[in-house]
């Protein structure tokens, strides 16, 4: 037995059981609770700079939620706080009933760059974490886990390859296999396809969706790409522009899973939803250009036409702190 | 300058207050105003509603705002008169004082091709801790309506989430330019200019829903919308927020006028803790009365927001 309480097993057994209690249902529906999450950095010239201020979001078990917003708004800050890699200034995060107070194997992160250890093969890179998380099972079982997850990301024939022998897309597949092989309760994806070409990006989106459908892992995806957000998620959380960024609004997507790219693209609602996301981002763009507004909005000059690209910014995702 | 609005472009045609009868078994009309809705007025005079009966009764039963999109349908008890007077849609909002319903406030409107307006009820979904759209009415706002059905607002997010957090009503003028109205682009594209958001408070501090009334300057919900709040020692109520597309001089009164308990419409609503509708402005404090009469306004309605045992704000509509 590798993990007595893998999410997929629990969900299936609980759904089949006639004695699922209301508290269990509530726990499933509030699997991840992010309450009043705030990140403040010290400022030697005045009050602390709040990068994120009062971020509230609840995720159901097995749900995929994308977080979208302008560069520097605090998306990755939220993700790293959920990962336990970045201390929380105020508020809290509860995962499956337990408050997060640091990194742990219940959360796995896939970053934009997989950062594989160059002296280990693909298998060796995946095995590193598996050996740590499952010390109680046999070496053979650990090997099987690694091989299984490398095969489901399409690397069955490349397990012995070193990072230098693999393309960027293949390396990212290893990164994904490395994360899901730990059977995390929550998967955190921080711009996982940001450095890949369009075809590889689409390919890997399908790989991840396939894995998520199979494993039912609760997932948070940070992305700049509205099409990616719509295609991959059940909900899109739109963040306001920082500083003091928070959830602006949440878009509930009407598409069933498993997803078929052609079906989603042909859905009559697709372009409306896409337009809704772009409109929100455009309004946040305008907000960045406007001075602080009084409580009662005054008549303002109309804005000129602005072109919005689907992938809003190409620059990197870490937050800038002004001190 | 007065914005010219002919009767045909007027959105609100009837405003009614329905309060429980002495025996508490029915709702009876206690205050009202009708703008060219004579047949509807005549029927309403003779009507009372049981819990669950008609729009006021449904609001009473549900305890949350309810929107009717088609007043000519048989679900609406007064549908024949509504059809005759061309009333097309309406919203009913419960007003609670603690756990007790003190009134159901009804806004009934006539829509035309030039009316851009929305009545929205946002309901708190407890497991998600966010507001989701309840019933809604949208006039000439097709895309805005379609997108709204997919939106959710967590605590503190957007105009509905902000009102949920602050537990106070809020007016936003120039929706298209507002950083706090997150559907600004939609408002801009479809011609919405201003909005009022009001929390529905029950059992002293419990909020179950938020009402949004959005409209354009061309066809405003009413020519003047104000929010009055108590001063620090609660000795007076002060005008703190106002939008007045049809009477710009009224907007300049913010933070300059106040009223005492029992004085004018706001003072009366504060004293009685119940919505009230009045025709004429003779009993209003100056310069409200003078400016309202000068702007050609004829009626006003006061809507109290009661929480923690006190009136926390009064929203006023003048047209």
Gist of the model:
With about 325 residues, chain A is of the alpha/beta class. Chain A has ten helices and ten strands. Chain B has helices at about 40-45, 55-60, 80-85, 140-150, 160-165, 185-190, 250, 265-270, 290-295; strands at about 10-20, 25-35, 50, 65-70, 90-95, 100-110, 115-125, 130-140, 150-155, 170-175, 195-200, 205-215, 225-230, 235-245, 260, 275-280, 300-305, 310-319.
How would you portray this structure in words?
The complex is a heterodimer of chains A (323) and B (319). Chain A has 323 residues and is of the alpha/beta class. Helices cover 36% and strands 19% of the residues of chain A. Chain A contains ten helices and ten strands. Chain A has helices at 7-16, 22-29, 75-83, 122-133, 139-152, 168-180, 198-215, 226-232, 261-266, 270-289; strands at residues 32-41, 49-59, 64-68, 90-95, 98-99, 107-110, 186-190, 218-223, 235-239, 247-252. In chain A, the strands form two sheets. A six-stranded mixed sheet of chain A has the order 6-7-8-3-9-10, with helices on both faces. Chain A is globular. With 319 residues, chain B is α+β, with helices and mostly antiparallel strands. Chain B contains nine helices and 18 strands. Chain B has helices at residues 38-45, 54-62, 79-84, 142-148, 158-166, 184-190, 248-251, 264-272, 288-294; strands at residues 12-20, 26-34, 48-50, 66-68, 89-97, 100-109, 117-125, 130-139, 151-154, 170-173, 194-202, 206-215, 224-230, 237-243, 258-259, 276-279, 299-307, 310-318. In chain B, the strands form three sheets. Chain B has a six-stranded antiparallel sheet with strand order 3-2-1-6-5-4. Chain B has a six-stranded antiparallel sheet with strand order 9-8-7-12-11-10. In chain B, a hairpin with a 3-residue loop joins strand 11 (194-202) and strand 12. Chain B is globular. At the A-B interface, strand 2, strand 10 and helix 10 of A face helix 4, strand 9, strand 10 and helix 6 of B.
Name its key features.
heterodimer, A: 323 residues, 6-stranded mixed β-sheet, 4-stranded antiparallel β-sheet, 10 strands, disordered N terminus, B: 319 residues, 6-stranded antiparallel β-sheet, 9 helices, 21% helix, globular
